[in-house]
Design brief:
Blueprint: H1 4-16, H2 21-46, H3 52-59, H4 69-83
Helix pairs in contact: 1-2, 2-4
Protein backbone atom coordinates (compact mmCIF):
# COMPACT_ATOMS: atom_id res chain seq x y z
CA UNK A 1 0.00 0.00 0.00
CA UNK A 2 1.38 3.32 -1.06
CA UNK A 3 0.29 6.46 0.74
CA UNK A 4 2.00 9.37 -0.99
CA UNK A 5 0.24 11.97 1.14
CA UNK A 6 1.68 10.40 4.29
CA UNK A 7 5.19 10.61 2.83
CA UNK A 8 4.54 14.16 1.63
CA UNK A 9 3.44 15.31 5.08
CA UNK A 10 6.39 13.51 6.68
CA UNK A 11 8.83 15.15 4.26
CA UNK A 12 7.37 18.64 4.74
CA UNK A 13 7.37 18.17 8.51
CA UNK A 14 11.02 17.20 8.58
CA UNK A 15 12.12 19.74 5.97
CA UNK A 16 10.34 22.72 7.56
CA UNK A 17 10.91 21.45 11.12
CA UNK A 18 7.23 21.86 11.96
CA UNK A 19 6.03 19.79 14.92
CA UNK A 20 2.84 21.36 16.22
CA UNK A 21 -0.62 20.15 17.15
CA UNK A 22 -1.97 20.55 13.61
CA UNK A 23 0.75 18.41 12.06
CA UNK A 24 0.34 15.81 14.80
CA UNK A 25 -3.41 15.74 14.06
CA UNK A 26 -2.68 15.09 10.38
CA UNK A 27 -0.32 12.25 11.30
CA UNK A 28 -2.90 10.72 13.65
CA UNK A 29 -5.58 10.82 10.94
CA UNK A 30 -3.21 9.33 8.35
CA UNK A 31 -1.97 6.56 10.66
CA UNK A 32 -5.53 5.67 11.68
CA UNK A 33 -6.50 5.52 8.00
CA UNK A 34 -3.57 3.22 7.15
CA UNK A 35 -4.25 0.87 10.07
CA UNK A 36 -7.96 0.70 9.22
CA UNK A 37 -7.18 -0.20 5.60
CA UNK A 38 -4.67 -2.84 6.70
CA UNK A 39 -7.23 -4.37 9.05
CA UNK A 40 -9.81 -4.52 6.27
CA UNK A 41 -7.32 -6.20 3.94
CA UNK A 42 -6.36 -8.69 6.65
CA UNK A 43 -9.96 -9.62 7.38
CA UNK A 44 -11.05 -9.78 3.74
CA UNK A 45 -8.14 -11.57 2.06
CA UNK A 46 -6.03 -13.27 4.74
CA UNK A 47 -8.60 -14.47 7.27
CA UNK A 48 -11.29 -14.66 4.55
CA UNK A 49 -14.01 -13.64 6.96
CA UNK A 50 -15.06 -10.17 7.99
CA UNK A 51 -17.01 -8.66 10.79
CA UNK A 52 -20.61 -8.18 9.82
CA UNK A 53 -20.29 -4.41 10.38
CA UNK A 54 -17.41 -4.13 7.92
CA UNK A 55 -19.23 -6.22 5.33
CA UNK A 56 -22.23 -3.91 5.59
CA UNK A 57 -19.96 -0.88 5.24
CA UNK A 58 -18.43 -2.20 2.03
CA UNK A 59 -21.79 -2.45 0.25
CA UNK A 60 -23.08 0.97 1.34
CA UNK A 61 -23.54 3.68 -1.26
CA UNK A 62 -21.33 6.62 -0.28
CA UNK A 63 -22.43 10.19 -0.39
CA UNK A 64 -20.62 12.04 -3.22
CA UNK A 65 -19.52 14.72 -0.74
CA UNK A 66 -17.35 12.17 1.09
CA UNK A 67 -14.92 12.29 -1.83
CA UNK A 68 -14.01 15.80 -0.76
CA UNK A 69 -13.65 15.01 2.95
CA UNK A 70 -9.85 14.76 2.70
CA UNK A 71 -9.68 18.05 0.87
CA UNK A 72 -11.92 19.75 3.41
CA UNK A 73 -10.06 18.29 6.39
CA UNK A 74 -6.38 18.01 5.45
CA UNK A 75 -5.74 21.19 3.47
CA UNK A 76 -6.81 23.64 6.22
CA UNK A 77 -4.94 21.60 8.84
CA UNK A 78 -1.84 21.58 6.66
CA UNK A 79 -1.89 25.34 6.08
CA UNK A 80 -2.49 26.00 9.77
CA UNK A 81 0.43 23.71 10.59
CA UNK A 82 2.94 25.44 8.33
CA UNK A 83 1.68 28.94 9.17
CA UNK A 84 1.62 28.42 12.96
CA UNK A 85 4.42 30.54 14.47
CA UNK A 86 4.81 28.30 17.53
Amino acid sequence: MVHPTFYFVLTVTLYLDVFNIYMIAIFIFKIFDIFFKLEMIKQRYIMEKMDSELEKMLVLQLNPLLRYLGLIMYVPLFFMAIADPF
